[in-house]
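Protein data:
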Amino acid sequence: MASPLEWNSLENFSTGFHYYWTCPLHWNKAKREFVSTKSTTLLIPWIIVVFIITPLITSYCTAVILLTIYGKVLAPLTNLIVFSILTILNFLMAAIEFSMYVHVESLTIASNYLVETSKRESKSVPQGKVDKLGLFLNASVALFSIYPYCMTPFGFYFRLDPVFHFAKYVLHLEMNTLRDHLFLFPLRICQFLPLLQICRLFPFLNCLVCLTTKLLLDAIHTLDTWAFLIRFSRPRADLQVRRYLELAVTVQVAYAILATIVALLMGLGLILCILFNFVSIKLYNVVPMPLYLCFPPVAVVIPLIIDTLLPFGISVNDKADKLKIKWGRKLVSSSDLKYIRRRVLAINPLHIPCGILGFKFFKLTKSIKVWFYDQILNYTITALLSNTNVGI
């Protein structure tokens, strides 16, 4: 069962980000449920940030990167690394936000069903054990709530922001006059808004994915605990199977957005883990020291996030498989429950999908974890063996 500390992460998230503009999905502290917003009038600030300012800043980053690649300008390697990270974060943030907006109602229904299920099945939380997941979720909320206010001053001071370099390398502004600075100042401030949205999105996804997956695992564990009842009578067996099918319907309701979020998060984790490892290990003498201090902590946090989220998704398929096998064994010797046995054999074990636009790439299983870590290790080693003496 989700511990009070884990539920507090959502409460702390609502408190820490309460001054933000309205987003499609948020946590209501008073009602203790997820609330969706589809009204475009209420979402005007969110639309401006995600679909106007974010693509604009991304285009600035992309322009400087491409002009450097084709030899038209000579931007420092430090700036290219920062712009690459910003481009990836902005693109994936906009993609996830758009996907959540399109499927927000199904995601809200599925999440709130699991929340209500946990309220009905009250259990005692084990005492005396360190709640690692609760500590992780609360730490991620605290870290991301202060991160934009640390990164932005460093970026402005060392002139690592995309608008400044776009004006310098593409527009060829001298940046020596007060007029140029006054012209660029509003645009440079606007860069802060997508960073705020990014720092809101990722702790919210951490809390949403971890808590809903844990509630789903709790529901499967409850069915596993009472699995012996399935052999005693037809009504009890029907009740067990019906509860399992309710969970299957819940997963199916949010199937499209769930697969998209998993695919984007795994892609984001792979790319950012490689980039931050590369900067932390290879560019320690290139990146300015105050800014460099932001990279090693994130390089440590990203694998922790991966190692927290990925096993949760894998456990769903693992426990559902074991439950199906357990039911099958209980019903082998029951001659009067052949219909229930056929229903159990026809059940497709629950799993967390990974895919985009209706195409499922794979489902999260134990073999995927080994493959994913292998990709991170291989590409990190390849990046560290590359030559970085040009353009520094």
About this structure: The chain has a mean pLDDT of 83. Residues 97 and 312 are 22 Å apart (CA to CA). The two ends are 52 Å apart (CA to CA).
